[in-house]
Specification:
By secondary structure, the chain is α/β, with parallel strands linked by helices. The protein contains 15 helices and 14 strands.
C-alpha cells in the first residue's frame, strides 16, 4: 500500500473515531439532560381560602377532622409559626405568586386600583420561573391577584374552586406527563364562612349564603338545639373577650358594617354556631383535597412530588369578638403550612421555632427542591432544610406582616403592631406569656424598652429586605402619639 493510500486510510479512521466520540458525547450529554429532567420533582401547591393555623385536627383541634391534611403532615413538616404576607386574599396571593410584599405594588386590600405590577416582578413570578426551567405549569381554582394567569406563567385547568377543581386536578394527575409539572390547586373553602355575618346583617336569623354554608350551618340529625349547644358545638375560644388596651382602629382596613354588627350584637350562641360552620366548611375542603392526594398516590406520582399546603389567610373564628380577616391578630395572620416530599422531608415533624413567610419563602423553597436557581432579587428564605429536619446555619429573627393601615413585626417572643392613626395606635404582646393576645403591653411603662426595640426592628426589617416602610408607621420617642 502506497504512502498516499495509508495517509488517506488513517485519515478516514481518525474522522470515524472523531465522529463516534462526538456522537457518544452528545448522546451522553442528552442522556444526562433527560436524567436531570426526570430527577426534577413534580410540585403540587395546594391553597385553601381563610383557614387559620389551628384549623387542622393534627394541630390539636378536636372540633373537626382533617384526615387528608393530617396524612400530608404525617409525611412531612408542619410549620407552627408561618405567617401570610397580608391577611386578605388579593395581597396575600400576590405575594405567594411573586415573592415580594404586596405594599411594593400598592396592594394592601382586595381592591386592584392601585396595583403597579412591573415587568421585573412578573419575570420572577412562580409560573414563569418554573416554566423557564422546563416545567409544565397549570393552575386551577381561585386566582384573585392583580394579574392574569398568563402574566404569571400558568395555564388554567379549572376555574371552579370546589369539587370540580378536585376532579380536574385528579384528571390532570392521571394523564401521561413527559416533563415535570407544577400544579396549583386553589380551593375556595372555608371562605364561605364570610357570608354568615354578611347574611345575618341583611336578614337576621336566616340561613343565607352559598349552599356549602347553608349546609354547614345545619345541626346534626337527631340532636336537639339544646343538646347541640350543651355537648356538640365548639365552645367560645379562650380569647373571646376584647383585649385590654386594644387599638381603636382595629377594623380600619375593613369598615364594612357587618363586622361591627357581629362584634356588638351577636349572642354567644351565634358565635358558637359560626365556629361550628367554619369547622364543617374546613372538613368539606379537606375531603376535596383528599381526591387530589388520592390521585397522586394512585398514579405513583407521590414518590417524586413535593406537596406544599397553606392558606391565603385565616379567620378570626370568634377570637376577640371578631369573624372574617383583615386584622393582624394570630387567627387572621398565622396560617397552616405543610411541606411534604415522600422519602425526603422528615415525617411528622412540627417546627415551632422558625418564623416563616408563606409570601416570601414559597418560591425560594420550591426552587431549592427542584434545583432551579432562585431569582436573585427575592429576599425570602428557603425552608427545605427545615422540612428535612436539618438546622440551617442562620435564620431570620423577625418577620413582618402587612395590612391596610397597619404593620406587624413578630420576633421570637413579642408581637408588635402599629396603626397608621389613632390615639392608641400601637400594640405589643408577649406571645409566650399571652398567646391569646389579651393584654396590650404598649400601654405599660415597664415595657417601654421592649416597645422601643420593636419600633427599631420594624424599620430595620424593611431596610434589610429592600422594601419601603411608610413613615406613618414610624413612631418616635417614648409616647405612642409623638
Amino acid at each position: 500500500m502506497g504512502t498516499t493510500m495509508k495517509l488517506k486510510r488513517n485519515l478516514c479512521l481518525f474522522l470515524i473515531a472523531l465522529l463516534a466520540c462526538v456522537y457518544i458525547g452528545s448522546a451522553a450529554e442528552s442522556g444526562s439532560e433527560a436524567e436531570r429532567s426526570a430527577a426534577k420533582p413534580n410540585i403540587l401547591f395546594i391553597i385553601t381560602d381563610q383557614q387559620h393555623a389551628g384549623m387542622l385536627s393534627c394541630a390539636g383541634n378536636s372540633y373537626l377532622k382533617t384526615p387528608a391534611l393530617d396524612s400530608l403532615a404525617a409525611m412531612g413538616t408542619r410549620f407552627e409559626l408561618a405567617y401570610c404576607a397580608n391577611p386578605v386574599c388579593l395581597p396575600s396571593r400576590f405575594s405567594m405568586m411573586t415573592g415580594v410584599l404586596p405594599s411594593r405594588v400598592g396592594v394592601e386590600t382586595n381592591g386592584k386600583g392601585k396595583a403597579k405590577v412591573t415587568p421585573d416582578i412578573l419575570e420572577h413570578s412562580l409560573g414563569r420561573v418554573f416554566g423557564k426551567a422546563g416545567y409544565e405549569t397549570v393552575y386551577g381554582g381561585k386566582l384573585h391577584v392583580p394579574m392574569t394567569l398568563e402574566d404569571i406563567g400558568f395555564k388554567n385547568i379549572e376555574k371552579n374552586g370546589g369539587s370540580k377543581l378536585a376532579e380536574a386536578c385528579a384528571k390532570f394527575l392521571h394523564q401521561p406527563h413527559d416533563r415535570p409539572f407544577l400544579m396549583v390547586a386553589s380551593f375556595i373553602n372555608p371562605h364561605d364562612i364570610c357570608f354568615m355575618a354578611i347574611g345575618d346583617e341583611r336578614a337576621p336569623g336566616k340561613s343565607a349564603g352559598p349552599q356549602p354554608l347553608v349546609e354547614a350551618m345545619q345541626l346534626p340529625a337527631g340532636v336537639s338545639r339544646r343538646e347541640f349547644f350543651e355537648r356538640v358545638c365548639p365552645p367560645l375560644p379562650a380569647n373571646f373577650k376584647i383585649p385590654e388596651g386594644e387599638p381603636e382602629n382595629i377594623l380600619a382596613a375593613d369598615t364594612r358594617t357587618f363586622r361591627t354588627h357581629a362584634r356588638n350584637k351577636w349572642t354567644d350562641e351565634q358565635w358558637r354556631l359560626h365556629r361550628w360552620a367554619y369547622a364543617r366548611l374546613t372538613e368539606r375542603v379537606d375531603s376535596e383535597i383528599s381526591v387530589v392526594l388520592t390521585a397522586l398516590s394512585e398514579t405513583g406520582l407521590d414518590k417524586n412530588t413535593v406537596v406544599v399546603f397553606t392558606s391565603d389567610h385565616g379567620d378570626m373564628d370568634a377570637s376577640h369578638h371578631l369573624e372574617h380577616k383583615s386584622v393582624l391578630y394570630e387567627e387572621a395572620s398565622r396560617v397552616p403550612l405543610i411541606v411534604s416530599w415522600k422519602g425526603v422531608t422528615k415525617p411528622g415533624l412540627v417546627d415551632r421555632t422558625h418564623l416563616v413567610s408563606t409570601g416570601q419563602d414559597l418560591i425560594p423553597t420550591l426552587c431549592d427542591f427542584a434545583g432551579v436557581p432562585v431569582p436573585s432579587s427575592l429576599k425570602g428564605r428557603n425552608v427545605s432544610a427545615l422540612a428535612e429536619g436539618r438546622t440551617p446555619s442562620s435564620w431570620r429573627e423577625t418577620q413582618v406582616v402587612e395590612n391596610g393601615e397597619s404593620r406587624m413585626l413578630r420576633s421570637a417572643r413579642f408581637k408588635y403592631v402599629v396603626y397608621a392613626s389613632g390615639a392608641r395606635r400601637e400594640m405589643l404582646v408577649d406571645m409566650v406569656a399571652d398567646p391569646g393576645e389579651m393584654k396590650n403591653l404598649a400601654l405599660d411603662p415597664a415595657s417601654a424598652s421592649v416597645l422601643d426595640e420593636h419600633r427599631r426592628l420594624l424599620k430595620e426589617w424593611y431596610q434589610q429586605n429592600g422594601e419601603t416602610l411608610d413613615s406613618k408607621y414610624v413612631v418616635l420617642g417614648k409616647k405612642q402619639n409623638e
